[in-house]
Amino acid sequence: MDGVLIDSEPLWQQAQIETMAKLGITITVEQCIAKTMGKRIDAIASIWCREFSINADVKQLENAILDRICQLIQSQGDMLPGVTEILQFLLQNQLKIGLATSSSIRVVDAVLSKLQIKSYFSVIRSADLEPYGKPHPSVYLSTAQQLGVSPADCLVIEDSLTGLIAAKAASMTTYIVNHNCCADKFSFSDNQFDDLHQVLAFLTQS
Predict the structure, then answer these.
(1) What is the pLDDT of residues 133-149, one digit of tens each?
(2) 3-state secondary structure of 29
(3) Which residue windows are coiled coil (predicted)?
(4) 1 located within any domain
């Protein structure tokens, strides 16, 4: 979801940086990308508590970051190019669409409300509901089960290494959509694209 449907990765970084600053701790965008991108909120909060030996309730840090990211999504969140077009293409071709995300239910609701695209999805599954977050494949397997399809028949669109690992562990065909899509770390994906317009063009020709 983040980085595929909405340009929220910079907002996640901002939410973490601002929340940590209130604790007197300075973190960078680069640290956020390296340590927390694509991870579940409980993992994000635990990483920072462990990294800086924060003597605070992890749940409080989770909620503080969630409060800020939801505010930022509502005020600054923008739909990424090609989202509506590819969702319409999939529906027109009678394909089931599921949303499998590391984001919490609160963030999912904020994003879908902001973008007004909830009606496109047959299944919406947050890793909050799973025993493990990405890179564990649980959220993808649960989504496929709810859709009533085999993992082998699923196509996943991901933007992060964490998500790619999860989707491939679920034995799903996985396309990376990322401006840095040709990076070596994404080489085991099934296809790489700069944006959803390229994905749509590829699917249309297939």
Answers:
(1) 999 999 999 999 999 99
(2) helix
(3) none
(4) no
